[in-house]
Amino acid sequence: MLDSYLPDPQIIAAFRTRQRRLVLMGVAWLAYGMAVLWSGWVPNSQLRAWLVGGFAPLAILVVLNWRCPKCRAGLGKSWAPFACPKCHTPFRDPI
Ligand SMILES: [Zn+2]
After folding, report:
1. How far is the CA of 79 from the centre of ligand 1 (A)?
2. Is residue 39 situated within a structural domain?
3. Which domain holds residue 50?
4. Ligand 1 centroid, distance to 21 Cα (angstroms)
5. Domain annotation covers residue 43
6. pLDDT digit string (tens) for the chain, length 95 residues
7. Ligand 1 centre from 69 Cα, in Å?
């Protein structure tokens, strides 16, 4: 079914960029979380507020980023979807 049409290299490149951005956001949040938890800059009573406060903008960025490069549909929870759940544009070369 899907092997019958060839993926567009531009779409694949755009998808990989989005995937890389997602990894960078995860790393950034991890670094932020570790800094908040272990640097000693944030008083214990404020830890939760700092963690949630850092997470909320990141969650928005993830939702904005994690979309199909072609139709802008959300890509859901899968980290490496084979194709867009809505328009079925393939994101990987068929092997
Ligand atoms: Zn799509």
Report:
1. 15
2. yes
3. 29-73
4. 18
5. yes
6. 455 467 789 999 999 999 999 999 999 999 999 999 999 889 999 999 999 998 899 999 999 999 999 999 999 988 899 999 999 999 987 66
7. 7
Q: Which two tokens stand for residue 75?
A: 């890509």
User: Which two tokens mark 35?
Assistant: 């800094």
- Is residue 91 included in any domain, yes or no? no
Quote the ligand 1 centre to 4 CA distance (angstroms). Answer: 17
CA torsion through residues 17, 23, 27, 30, sign: positive
The verdict on residue 9 lying in a domain is no
Apex CA 67: angle with CA 35 and CA 1, to 5°?
130
pTM score: 0.80
